Amino acid sequence: MTITTNTDEEYDTEENTLLVKPKEEEPVIPLSEHLFKYLGLLFMCLVILGAASTFDVPAAFGSKVISEWYHVNEVDYGVLYSVYSFPNLVLVVVGGYLIDSLLGLRLGLLVFTGFIAIGQIIFAISANARTFWLAILGRLIYGVGGETIYIVAFAYVSVWFFGRKDFALAFSTVNTVGRLAGAIDLSVTTDIADHFSLPVTIWIGTFLCLFSFVAGLVLSYLETLRLKKVNPLIDQKEQDKKAEIKQQKKFKISDVKKFPLQFWLILFFINCYVIPVFSFITIGTDFFKTHFPHLNTSALISIPFYLACLAPLLGALVDKFGRNLYFLTVSSVLALVAFIFLMFKPVTPYISVIFLGISMATIYSASFTLINPLVPEYCISVCFALNSALTSGSMALTIIGINSILQKNNNDYTIIFVIYILLILISIVTLVILIIMDRKHQLINVPPEIQKEKIKERKEKEEALDRQREQEQNPLIVN
C-alpha cells in the first residue's frame, strides 16, 4: 500500500520505505510567448490611460475656475463628480455582469472605451461652448465606462497572466500606470491651461481617450490571436469540445452564492484599508495646511502617489515568494503607524506619507491577485466589479461623513484619525483570520509552487465534472 503525503513523497507501507516522486519540470516558455504577453500588457496599460488622465480634470482646475468658466455656482461644480460616482455604484456591477455573461472581454473593452471617448468629446465641446448641462451630459456618458474600463483591464490581466510567474507584476503595473497618470494629471493640467486655455487642455485629454480606444482595438485583436493559438498535442475535436464547454460557462447571478468566505473577507479587508488611506488623500491638503503650514503641502500629498510606483517591484517580490497576506499585513501596519504619527505628531509628516506610499504600493501588488485563485475565470469581471462598487460606495459615504464631522468639530482631525486607526486595526484582524483559514486551504498565502499545484488540482476536478456532465447530456447508445 502506498500513502501520498502533501510533499513530493510517497510512503510504501508494505516495503516500509520512503519513495520520492520526481518533480515535474516546468515547461520552458519560448521568448516569443513572453514578448507577446508583455505586448498585451502594454496595451492593457494604454486602454486605461485616457480614463486615468481625465477623470480628475475638474479637480485639477478647482471649483472656482470651473464655476467661473461655466457661469455656475461652486455647489453646481460638485455635480460633475456626482453624475460620475453615484451611478457607478450600480453601473460598474452591471458592466462586470455584462462582460462575464454577454459581451465578453473583446466587445466589452470596445464598448466601454467608446463610452469614455464619446463622453469626453461632449465634455470638451461643452468647454468651448461654456454650456454646463452639456458638461454634465458628457461626464454622465463618460462615467458609464470610466470605472468599468478598470474591470476590463483587470480581467484581461487575469486571463493573460494568471498561473504565470509574473502575475502580480502584471497586475501592479496596470494599477500603477492608472494611479501615476492620475497624479500627473493633477500636477500638469493647470500648467497646460496657463500656456494655452481650459478648452485646449480638455481636448488634449480627449485625444488621450481616443488613443485609448485605438489601443482597445489593438488589444482586442491580440486577444483574438491568443484565442486562436492551438496546442498541436491535442486533437482538434477535443479542443472544439473544450471550447464548447467553456462557451456554456457564463456567469449567473446564482453563482454569487458559491463564492467562498475568503473572497468576501478579502473585499472586507480592501474596504477597511481603502476608506482611511484614500479618504485621507482627499483631506490631506487641508490637514497639512492647518497643522504644518511651513511645509510644502503639494509635495507632501503627492509623495504617496509617486511612491506607489514601487508596486511593480513589490509585485515581482510577491511573484517570487508568494505569501500575499504577510505582505498585506506589513502594509497595514505601515498605514497604522502613519496615522498614529499624524495624529500625535512625534515626527515630521514626511515619514508618515512615505509609509503610506509604500503601503499603497504593496496593496496594488498583493491584494487584487488574491481574487483569481478563489473564483472561476468566468466570474472574474463580476468579482472585480463588486469590489469596485463596494469601495466606491464606501468612499462616497465616508467623504460625506468626514466633511460633516470636521464641520461640526471646527476642523478637529482627532476623531477622524481615531476612525482611521480603528479601521486599519479591523483590516489587520481580518488578515489574521484569512491567514488562519488559509492554513487549511493553502491557496492565497502560500509559495507560488504550492498555489499552482492546488489550482491545477482544482482545474482537473472541474474538467472531470465537465466531462461527466457532457456524458450525462449525450449518453452513449449501446446496441
From TrEMBL:
Residues 457-479 are annotated as: Disordered. Keywords: Lysosome, Membrane, Transmembrane, Transmembrane helix, Transport. It is found in: Lysosome membrane. Residues 457-472 have a biased composition (Basic and acidic residues). GO terms for molecular function: transmembrane transporter activity. One of its GO terms (cellular component) is lysosomal membrane. It is a multi-pass membrane protein. InterPro entries: MFS, MFS_dom, MFS_trans_sf, MFSD1. Its main location: membrane. Residues 38-439 form the Major facilitator superfamily (MFS) profile domain. It catalyses: L-arginyl-L-alpha-amino acid(out) = L-arginyl-L-alpha-amino acid(in); L-histidyl-L-alpha-amino acid(out) = L-histidyl-L-alpha-amino acid(in); L-lysyl-glycine(out) = L-lysyl-glycine(in); L-lysyl-L-alpha-amino acid(out) = L-lysyl-L-alpha-amino acid(in). The chain crosses the membrane at residues 35-57, 78-99, 105-128, 140-162, 200-222, 259-283, 295-318, 325-344, 350-371, 378-402, 414-436. Pfam families: MFS_1. Belongs to the major facilitator superfamily. Lysosomal dipeptide uniporter that selectively exports lysine, arginine or histidine-containing dipeptides with a net positive charge from the lysosome lumen into the cytosol. Could play a role in a specific type of protein O-glycosylation indirectly regulating macrophages migration and tissue invasion. Also essential for liver homeostasis. Homodimer. Interacts with lysosomal protein GLMP (via lumenal domain); the interaction starts while both proteins are still in the endoplasmic reticulum and is required for stabilization of MFSD1 in lysosomes but has no direct effect on its targeting to lysosomes or transporter activity. This is Lysosomal dipeptide transporter MFSD1. It comes from Tieghemostelium lacteum (Slime mold).
